[in-house]
Amino acid sequence: MFGEKTQMVFRFAKSIKGAIDGKKRIVFACIGSDRSTGDSLGPLVGHMLSSRLRRYQEIEIVGTLKEPLHALNLDKFHQHYTASDCFVVAIDASLGRTEEVGRIVMRTGSLRPGAGVGKDIAAIGNISIYGVVNVGSALGMENMVLQCTRLGLVYEMAEEIANMIATGIYISKSSSQAYLEMLEAE
Questions:
Q1: Strand ranges inside 109-164, DSSP E
Q2: Number of structural domains, the chain?
Q3: Which Pfam families does the entry link to (predicted)?
Q4: Is residue 185 one of the residues assigned to a domain?
């Protein structure tokens, strides 16, 4: 009955509902750098969410165009936000196969920032959302691929993710768990 994107909104709303009901602080870790087009997905989402979710006191956005969350400051994030009172939603760009470019994936569990470019950074997130922004390279040229990624695609994906999150937060705050389960089942 519902399309794939709508299903993702309902799944997100259901996933975040427990954190909201449990009065946990919700932290969006929008990972990436504004210095690389392909890697700017996270900071773009963070920038968009900052205005869309500003009325919710229990929600914090870390990683925006103004103050990106990237490999050089992720250790500080881990030190500050690993407390049990935080529910972390990690958002990052990813490289994939040709047929996956433009795809947005949401799953329960963490993601490993920088894994696609060979960085060894600790996993992050209770929920992870990533967008496949370009094709991975078998030649070790992932950083160049990210630099050459189309901004238009990254921006459209960021808008889609920000809309999904804002809608999911609204639905989860105004709906019961049973209602969300019913919607997800349709």
A1: 127-135
A2: 1
A3: DUF1256
A4: no
Cα-Cα end-to-end distance for the chain? 6
**Residue 137 domain-assigned?**
yes
- Cβ pair 128, 17 in contact under 8 A: no
**Tokens 């950074």 — which residue?**
121
Q: Pairing between strand 127-135 and 104-108? A: antiparallel
Q: What is the per-residue pLDDT across 68-104, written as a single tens digit (0 to 9) for each?
A: 999 889 888 888 887 667 889 999 999 999 999 999 9
**Token pair belonging to 94:** 């990813």
Domain assignment of residue 160, given as a range:
4-177
Q: Average pLDDT in the 119-125 region?
A: 82
Tell me the three state secondary structure of residue 173: helix
Q: Which residue has the tokens 């509902």?
A: 17
The verdict on residue 186 lying in a domain is no
Domain contains 182: no
Cβ density class 114-148: b for 16+ within 10 Å, e for less? bebbeeebeebbbbbbbbbbbbbeeeeebeebbee
